[in-house]
Amino acid sequence: CVLTEYRSTYMSLVYFDISIGGSPAGRIVFRLFDSIVPRTALNFKCLCTGERGVGSTTGKDLSYENTIFHRVIPGFMCQGGDFSKRDGTGGESIYGGKFADEAFRVKHTKYGQLSMANAGPNTNGSQF
C-alpha cells in the first residue's frame, strides 16, 4: 500500500494491490474520512504503509502486506486485516491492542464503504 494525500477534500487515499492464487487481480482504492474519524483513519493508513514497526501485543509487523480476506460473503462484504493469525481472531491497532470507537456519523448506504470490524464497543484493532 502506498499513501497519497487527496488534499482538496481532506481525505487520504490508500490502496491494496490484490492477487488471487498468486496472480494480480486488481487494485482497491480506499478514501478515508480523516476529519471525521482521525484515529481510525491514521490506524488504517499506518497499517497500509507498515510504518509503525512491530505490534506490542502480537509481536507481528503492523502491516496489511500479504494478508488475506479471511471472510467473504458474495454480494455483501469481505473482511480482512488479521495480520497476526489470518483467521479473524487476531490483529491489533497501531495504538497497541484495541482502541475506542470514534463516530458513527457516516452511514453505510453504498457499496464499497470501508468500516472497522470489531467484537463490540471500543474493540477496534486492525480488521476491516
Write the layout of secondary structure elements.
Blueprint: E1 4-6, E2 11-20, E3 23-32, H1 38-49, E4 69-73, E5 77-80
Antiparallel strand pairs: 1-2, 2-3, 4-5
Structure overview:
By secondary structure, this protein is mainly β. It has one domain (1-127): Cyclophilin, CATH 2.40.100. The chain has one helix and five strands, in the order E-E-E-H-E-E. The protein has one helix at 38-49, and strands at residues 4-6, 11-20, 23-32, 69-73, 77-80. Strand 4 (69-73) and strand 5 form a beta hairpin. The longest helix is centred in the middle third of the chain and has 12 residues, at 38-49. The protein is globular, with a radius of gyration of 14 Å.
Sheet of most strands: 3 strands, antiparallel
Name the CATH architecture.
Answer: Beta Barrel
CATH topology: Cyclophilin
Adjacency order of strands in the biggest sheet: 1-2-3
How many structural domains can be distinguished in the coordinates?
A: 1
Radius of gyration: 14 Å
**How many beta-strand elements?**
5
Structural class: mainly beta
CATH class division: Mainly Beta
Quickly count the helices: 1
SSE topology string: EEEHEE
Distance between the termini: 15 Å
- Which regions contain 5 or more consecutive residues with pLDDT less than 50? none
Shape: globular
Helix content: under 10%
Estimate the mean pLDDT confidence: 92
User: What fraction strand?
Assistant: 25-35%
Function: PPIases accelerate the folding of proteins. It catalyzes the cis-trans isomerization of proline imidic peptide bonds in oligopeptides.
GO cellular component, one term: cytoplasm
Catalytic activity: [protein]-peptidylproline (omega=180) = [protein]-peptidylproline (omega=0)
Protein name: Peptidyl-prolyl cis-trans isomerase
